[in-house]
Description:
The chain is α/β, with parallel strands linked by helices.
Amino acid sequence: xxxxxxxxxxxxxxxxxxxxxxxxxxxxxxxxxxxxxxxxxxxxxxxxxxxxxxxxxxxxxxxxxxxxxxxxxxxxxxxxxxxxxxxxxxxxxxxxxxxxxxxxxxxxxxxxxxxxxxxxxxxxxxxxxxxxxxxxxxxxxxxxxxxxxxxxxxxxxxxxxxxxxxxxxxxxxxxxxxxxxxxxxxxxxxxxxxxxxxxxxxxxxxxxxxxxxxxxxxxxxxxxxxxxxxxxxxxxxxxxxxxxxxxxxxxxxxxxxxxxxxxxxxxxxxxxxxxxxxxxxxxxxxxxxxxxxxxxxxxxxxxxxxxxxxxxxxxxxxxxxxxxxxxxxxxxxxxxxxxxxxxxxxxxxxxxxxxxxxxxxxxxxxxxxxxxxxxxxxxxxxxxxxxxxxxxxxxxxxxxxxxxxxxxxxxxxxxxxxxxxxxx
Length: 424
């Protein structure tokens, strides 16, 4: 039996979807454990490209059962659209797709509040996707949330929506000067989606406990990345959930002692979407080259990602935070055309030097990276399937990262497609 967590080791967008897809052929269950439709996992195989936002990335490679866990917040209408996209590719979800009855629901008022709050922040905006993720988690923690199981009882659902709209409409009128929302319209839009989702809603924690009893293998798929964790990231410029290893347990119902592997995913450089500190960000020709070569545009929003060199102290922090015992390196090929490649090995801060990634966003803003330079390899790494066949400069680059972090790369991705991978 193996229970492996797939965790973003940076600010998200590390290529977790590809790694989950690659590993899913040899697992029994793939479980998405947190986040919502603000995350996009891009898969490329058989000349197809598909972006998944809620459905786990294990749907297309093998016969793994795919679960949306209790830690996810779900937009029912968006999920139905995604189901239709998946089934259009001749994938049968029957007996392969399950939705936790305890997962919380994103409703239209969550989206409205998300967008209004972000607008009101002005220059201090966090950079959310406006899809209602944060307000849905607020409802959950405030114990006024609506869960997937509530969708199965329309009369009770209507009463809960009416109850929540009393406070929300009061805020819309008196704080934001907006028209109130109507429960009737909300229910009319929800009911068709509910009919399509009903067959998939169940007690997924029970399914997973049975799988553990049988010794079956499980992949736990996170969204976003460790540096966006609401507790351990660059707060307040973070997501609203816990993409870290602890979040995998609470978001799935799997006990910590069952975890056998924590696989961290890192790019060969760094990117970040939205606002917040980013020590190695490059606002120059090299940053633009990383963005262009890596096609660094958000899969969900289309926003251009901020790009910079690999930050090793931040990566080591993520490794320690999650107990990562294996790593995957993605987008190595993006560095193929660089004469010189830099890696941050420490920081200058307040007149001194440190290798500790700070927990205060204000201090992170003040960091001045200390770089080590590596010679580039200036030839393509695409289609290479054996580590020994990589250029010597690329192997040295990888070995230096492993030496600094203290954890080895078990997978190296040299392109977006499933077969553009080195498994060590």
